[in-house]
Amino acid sequence: xxxxxxxxxxxxxxxxxxxxxxxxxxxxxxxxxxxxxxxxxxxxxxxxxxxxxxxxxxxxxxxxxxxxxxxxxxxxxxxxxxxxxxxxxxxxxxxxxxxxxxxxxxxxxxxxxxxxxxxxxxxxxxxxxxxxxxxxxxxxxxxxxxxxxxxxxxxxxxxxxxxxxxxxxxxxxxxxxxxxxxxxxxxxxxxxxxxxxxxxxxxxxxxxxxxxxxxxxxxxxxxxxxxxxxxxxxxxxxxxxxxxxxxxxxxxxxxxxxxxxxxxxxxxxxxxxxxxxxxxxxxxxxxxxxxxxxxxxxxxxxxxxxxxxxxxxxxxxxxxxxxxxxxxxxxxxxxxxxxxxxxxxxxxxxxxxxxxxxxxxxxxxxxxxxxxxxxxxxxxx
Length: 381
Known about the structure:
Blueprint: H1 2-30, H2 67-114, H3 122-132, E1 136-140, H4 142-151, E2 154-159, H5 169-178, E3 182-183, H6 188-194, E4 203-208, H7 219-222, E5 227-232, H8 237-249, E6 254-257, H9 267-272, E7 282-284, H10 288-297, E8 301-305, E9 316-317, H11 322-328, E10 331-336, H12 344-348, E11 352-354, H13 368-379
Parallel strand pairs: 2-3, 5-6, 5-10, 6-7, 8-10, 8-11, 9-11
Antiparallel strand pairs: 1-4, 2-4
Helix pairs in contact: 3-6, 4-5, 8-13
């Protein structure tokens, strides 16, 4: 116990002595004078520029001359070389493309020379078939093919079906009786080209074109007819075919049209008529005004259709009165297109005008094929 107290007292005395020595040294330092800092630059009168080793500005390469001229003279040969290189590359590319085109042409010629007629491209095959006989055409559709086989001279039938067991029995029987060849397994794309992208149902018929006479040369035939249709400016072949289908349904005797401003009886019209064109008496009229005068001489009643609220110089009759007119003598219905209707010159030469009224006002006209069906229905009551 006494020893620990003695050690603590000795330690305390050493601490007091160290503190006293520190205070003494700090008092000695504080009594010394402070030295002033030396200036960073010499103050002997020299300028700022003289303190640097080299104060001259670097010279530029074009000093003393025009900058544009300098670069033009320096790099003119470089541009010339680049242009020459681009020209050579362009010529080499054109030469490569020319050789490639010649090689492909030669290859195609070699392939075509070793291919049979059926292996040509679709378009070439189509053109080849058309060029064989300008009096032939390609009709299409199941019903149209059936009626054409019964009424026209057919060269051959193209079908996408695989064999005799797949095609329509009536078509197979007609081709067998007339010894008409059938080409099976024709690619659908080829049939599309032959049919002009029409809906062919897998049948395309190569047949002679429909021979349509001129009605002006049929004065004796007109004496035997009771009902007829004249189509003025019907430019849509599908409407034309639909009207002919309706005309056959109602047993219309004759259908006339002007080839100058109406659609022709094309394969599209034949397809739309479902083969009705093969059963109707069709006639071309090159002078409609003279034809109307001829009809009046033969005692025909001419009824032209007009739009509602249209002023005409001839009497108007109700469509329900058409059946009574038919009982009095032959009657000719005149139908115009949906945009302009029957031309005024033909309306003025008609006996009567008629119109189909609508119970509402949102739609001002019907499709011409629908209008033809309604009028023929009222005519045959």
